[in-house]
Amino acid sequence: MEKTTVLSLQGNSKIDKIFLRFDLITQKWTELSPMNTSRAFFSAVASSNLSSIYVMGGVTEGGKAVNHVERFDMLTNQWEYLAPMCNAR
Question: pLDDT tens digits for 66-76?
Answer without folding.
Answer: 999 999 999 99
